[in-house]
Amino acid sequence: MKKQAKLAFLSAVLAVGTMLAGCGGASNNASNGADTPSQEQSGGSDSAGQGKEKIVIASVGPLSGSASDYGSTAKAGAEYALQQKKAAFEELGFEVELLPQDDQADPKQAVSIAEMVISNPDVVAVVGHVTTGASVAASAKYEQEGLVMVSPSSTGSSLTEEGKKVVHRICARDDQQGSKAAVFAKNNLNVKSAYIIHDNQAYGQGLADEVKKQFEKDGVQILGYEGITPGEKDYSAVINQVMAANPEMIYFGGYYAEAGILIKQARDKGFKGYFMGGDGFDSADMLKIAGPAADGVVFTSTVGDIGATEEGKKWIQEYEQATGNKVGIFTSFGYDAMNVTLNGVLEAIKANGGKKPTREEVLNAIHDTKDFQGQFVKVSFDDKGDNEFAEVFVYKYENGEKVYVGKAE
After folding, report:
1. pLDDT tens for residues 57-111?
2. How does strand 401-407 pair with strand 393-398?
3. What pLDDT was estimated at residue 306?
4. What's phi and psi for 277, nearest 5 deg?
5. Is residue 165 assigned to a domain?
């Protein structure tokens, strides 16, 4: 089979992987990302890929620490997508491998990981990073080397506002998520006053700022705006301020580890109003930390409910049977971020006459992605690297379960 014919074959295989399109989502059960096999960094071709050129895709996110639920599920989805495409790439003469890395959601660690990834000449793209702070920090390194990144979940608006060509994401931005959350709170929950808390980090404070901006625009009274220190176990000081202000809603910009504590302690002190946050609330661990106090908590997410369709249910079943993992919050978007990345690599191979593409060629191909129909989300990148088709959805916790409410309009 000649290489051009093989390219046509690969195009067909990649298309099959994205036929069952719908809005992406996740169940409450998180994969630990450790049950599926990972390809480790190595030099040269291994026995399985003997005589084949190596193409490596790095997958970076928190695989340990308080945000590991996000990184491990994104990595598991990315790995599943790559495993499905390995044979097709082998037909073209390439051994495609995953290089998973743990940045611990720490910007400093993210920079170190980025430097290590860049030093591997076989790495042509990065699926990640998963959290905003890590993505922003690492993107400066990737920009210097022209190494493209496709984040499944970094929502901070600043990420794509800095003018870096390498930066891309398939999820919605926080100015979309925050404004739509505030509109939902006003119009659907009839909230007239709110106390806003954030975790002093890029994602959490950025999201809280957007909610505050929209509330002020819509006439919802802001009774307080305070930051907390992540990792603490007692937030009674700020909760006492909330109780004195008596708002109809507490909005928290941050992750589930702190959110769970805040919710439990606020309920213990008698807070009866709404508690709302962003996709940082989406974790089975939230229910473990907050317990029954999580009931009624509302949150937005950039990931829709795939289990609402027959196609989505079928994909969940196939994924869980193939990997032994449960679908988690970012499994679906990790999967599609990898699909977008592999599609870009394919396009770069085509443009390069069937030869291994350079990082610059892969960057250009991914940056030019238009109307790519993933399994869960359609993707067209604008000049900034944002996805023109990204949406925001609303969920709530009810009787110890995550319940889909609908699309945030």
Report:
1. 999 999 999 899 999 999 999 999 999 999 989 999 999 999 999 999 999 999 9
2. antiparallel
3. 86
4. -155, -170
5. yes
Tokens of 235: 């937030």
| Percent of the chain at pLDDT exceeding 90 | 84
Tens digit of each residue's pLDDT (9 = 90 or more) over 40-64: 333 333 444 457 899 999 999 999 9
Same domain, 9 and 129: yes
Contact 373, 18 (CB under 8 A): yes
Position with higher pLDDT, 389 vs 16:
389
166 and 225 belong to one structural domain:
no
Q: Are residues 264 and 250 in the same domain?
A: yes
pLDDT value, residue 50 = 59
Domain that holds residue 195: 175-301
The alpha-helical segments, DSSP class H, found in 219-309 are 236-245, 256-268, 284-290
Determine contact, residues 263/290, Cβ cutoff 8 Å. Answer: yes
For the record, the structure tokens of 224 come out as: 């307080």
For residues 141 and 70, membership in a common domain is answered with: yes
What's the rounded Cα separation, in Å, for the pair 396 and 24?
17
234 and 93 co-located in one domain: no
311 shares a domain with 290:
no
Indicate the average pLDDT of the chain: 89
Q: Is residue 232 part of a domain?
A: yes
Q: Are residues 252 and 332 in the same domain?
A: no
DSSP at 62: -
At 116-162, the pLDDT tens digits run 999 999 999 999 999 999 999 999 999 999 999 999 999 999 999 99
Q: Tell which residue, 213, 218, 151, has the closest CA to residue 176.
A: 213
User: What span, in angstroms and rounded, lies between the C-alpha atoms of 237 and 385?
Assistant: 40
Number of domains in the chain: 2
The pLDDT tens digits of the residues spanning 284-299 come to: 899 999 999 999 999 9
Q: H or E stretch including 208? A: helix 202-218
CATH of the domain at 123: 3.40.50.2300
Q: Is 349 helix (H, G, I), strand (E, B) or coil?
A: helix
138 shares a domain with 87: yes
